[in-house]
Structures are given as structure tokens and as C-alpha cells.
């Protein structure tokens, strides 16, 4: 397994961990770890009706997204058929990147607060996209 | 089909080529051939990007606040559902937030009793543009509805540059009660221009208890004053009227907790000035919030001066 595969798998694993922590905070409504100040506040974001999309809390998206990326990352590594999985992984990550435009808009324009853990998930997705892109060129 | 650069042997996959190289030519550094992208790869990427951008665009458009905060309904009567929810908040919901901490409580003052038509007078001076007034009006309307019949409420948003908060205006309010009277003056409109005239008597009180004449100003029969929204009104930011009023009986909603917490504090103060009437209201837990727990460090006036509720420098209100 090359360094790109290791990085991609590790990073998507990190995404799962952060998504689980975020979910735990939402479910228990205990945001002590994630509330930095009045602006960077997961609690403030969670309490807004805009923290749901089509009635689904945003944390659910992360909880589904990163395990999916993790499985595809494993498939994309030397464990699987890279040529096939690259056709799924990169477009999917791009899809996620573009979706974060809405999430940024949601938090900044509609709620007026930022959720640090959510942002870290977006950043993980951006880095994964870059890594997959470069590994594809290798 | 990938070929070994050392011996020229062909392989069906890159993995088998790499495996062969590491086994047969372990001393030669392996540099695999450049990976060929799957057929139609860029077409797939292009389609994904276009579809995703379009979907996000639609999402953002449908979530735009204008959908729920249509200025064309400003200054028109609130809907029956809105009115029903606002004036029909259950005792259970009010009780359940009786211990919720809010930002500002009415503070006691010692002035001559303020009465109108023989009843303790509740005087409100505010402005449609003012976001703190927007926050206060939600709590005040709920509180007043416990003592009588409030009507004439209309849709309002605080100023476009003042958070654009969904609220109601008291500019056409009517109030009937057996226990208290209510005087409301919206001294400024949504653009911050002078609007309703402040009478001489009201101006004297406003000037006496808040020389900066900031808004909102709430005088509860000259026994309590509140010079701020009871809670931080930014909690209403981005919420439509419906998103607020439909949750007023849901005391687990954070915005509801603050609005009702403010209502409880105002109800408690009113009960203290109207002889604890009606008993059905004033004997309830929500009407017995510990106002003394909120203890401004200095005198009321010093407190008011150090906590200006709205930026000074707004134009002087129109005085009678």
C-alpha cells in the first residue's frame, strides 16, 4: 500500500471519528468540547432549525458520508481494483466538496455561527479530494 | 496492457506487474507505468460537478430568508394561527422555563405609581427597526396576554441592517384588561425614522430612568423597568415568524426558552404591581420568578447607563 492509500484511509477514518463525536454532542446536547465562543459554537448551530435539511439533522450526513468514503478508500487502495473505484471515489468526494458550499452558506448566512467540528469534517473532505486527485496522477 | 520494463513480460493488471517486479527484480527500483484513467472519467466528473452545483444552487435558493420574511406582509395583521400560538402559550410551557436563565430581568425602581384609567400602567417605548425591541415584544405580548386581551398585532422585521429579525409591532396594538393598562409607542419605524409621537408624560419617564433615551424602554407601573431585550435577540436570527410562533409551546426549543423566560420575568413583575391578580396567573410558578436574583451591581440608572440597550446617536424621538 503506498503512502497515498495510507493517508486516504487514515483521513477517512479520522472523518468517522469526528463525525461520531459530533453526533454524540448533538444527541446528548452537550457541546462543551465544541463551543469555543459565541461565534464558533456547535450548540448554537445545532439549536437552529437550519441545522436540518429535509428534516434530517446535518450530523447524520457526516455519519453516513465518512464510513462510505472509508469503504471506498479501502477499495481504492491496493486491496481493491483501483481503476474501478477511482471512478466512484473522486466524483463522490467532489460531490461532497460542492455540497459544503451549501453548508458554509447555511452556517454563515442563515445561522450566523460556525460549528468547528462540522468545519473540520469539510476540511477532511477537501484534503481527501486533493489526495485522491494526486494519487490518481501517480 | 502493462509490461515489465526490465524483462518485457506483459501482465493483465498493474498489481500483478508490481508483484512480478518485486519478486523477480528485487534490486531494481519499481516505477510502475502511469495509470490510465478509466474511460469517460472526465465526463463523469463533469456531470457530477454540474449536477452538484445545480443542486446546491436550488438548495440555497429555497432556503433564502426572503421566502419566509416577505416585507409585503409587514404592517399587516398577524395570521390567526400566529395570534393563537402567541396568546395561547400554555401554563405548562411557561412553568417549564421558570428556572431558565435569561440575560436581563426587570429591575426595581421607586417612583410614584404609574396608573392609567385607575389601573397600573405598563409603558413600552421602542422602534420597529430595533432588534432588541424585536426580542422584547415577543416576551411582552405573551406576558400581556395573560392579563387581558391584546389585539392589533402586526408583522414586523427589525431593520435590514439590524439582523432583520422576525417579530411583531405594537404600532396598532389595542389592549383591554381588568388588571393593568398598556401604552405602547413605536417611536421609530423600520428605517429608523421618527414614527409615533412620544407624549410629554411618557417622555418624562423615559428621560428620568434612561437619560440616554435608548430603546427599548419598558416601565412596569414605575416599580420595575427593563431597558433591554430580556434575552439576546440574535437567537431569532434567520428564523421566520412561523418557525418562532409554531414552537412557542415547545419549551425544549432554545429560542422558545428565552422568549418564555422573558415572558415569565415580565409576568412576575406585573403580578407584583397589580396586587397579584388574577390569582390563577400570579400563583403559578411562572409568575414567581426570583427577580431579586438579578442584582445589578450599582443603582438602576448606573446599570442602565452601562448597559445601553441600543446604540446611542439615534435621532431624537418625536416628542409631543
Q: How would you describe this structure to a colleague?
A:
The complex is a heterodimer of chains A (138) and B (320). Chain A is 74% helix and 3% strand. Chain A is an all-alpha fold and 138 residues long. A two-stranded antiparallel ribbon of chain A has the order 1-2. In chain A, strand 1 (52-53) and strand 2 (56-57) form a beta hairpin. In chain A, helix 1 runs antiparallel to helix 3 (58-76), helix 3 (58-76) runs antiparallel to helix 4 (82-111) and helix 4 (82-111) packs antiparallel against helix 5 (116-137). Chain A is elongated, with a radius of gyration of 16 Å. The model of chain A has no long low-confidence stretch (mean pLDDT 84). By secondary structure, chain B is of the alpha+beta class. Chain B is 34% helix and 14% strand. Chain B contains 10 helices and 10 strands. In chain B, the strands form 3 sheets. In chain B, strands 1, 2, 3, 8, 9 and 10 form a 6-stranded mixed β-sheet that branches. In chain B, strands 4-7 form a two-stranded antiparallel sheet. Chain B has a two-stranded antiparallel sheet with strand order 5-6. In chain B, strand 2 and strand 3 form a beta hairpin. In chain B, helix 5 crosses helix 8. Mean pLDDT of chain B is 86; it is low at 297-313.
Can I get a quick summary?
Chain A has 138 residues and is mostly helical.
Characteristics of this structure?
heterodimer, A: 138 residues, mainly alpha, B: 320 residues, alpha+beta, two-stranded antiparallel sheet, 10 helices
From the spread of the alpha carbons, the general shape of chain B counts as: elongated
Number of strands of chain A: 2
Low-confidence stretches of chain B: 297-313
Q: Please count the helical segments of chain B.
A: 10
| Major β-sheet profile of chain A | 2 strands, antiparallel
| Strand residue percentage of chain B | 5-15%
Please give the order of strands in the largest beta sheet of chain A.
1-2
How large, in whole angstroms, is the Cα Rg of chain A?
A: 16 Å
Broad structural category of chain B: alpha+beta
The arrangement of helices and strands of chain A along the chain is HHEEHHH
* Overall residue-averaged pLDDT value of chain A: 84
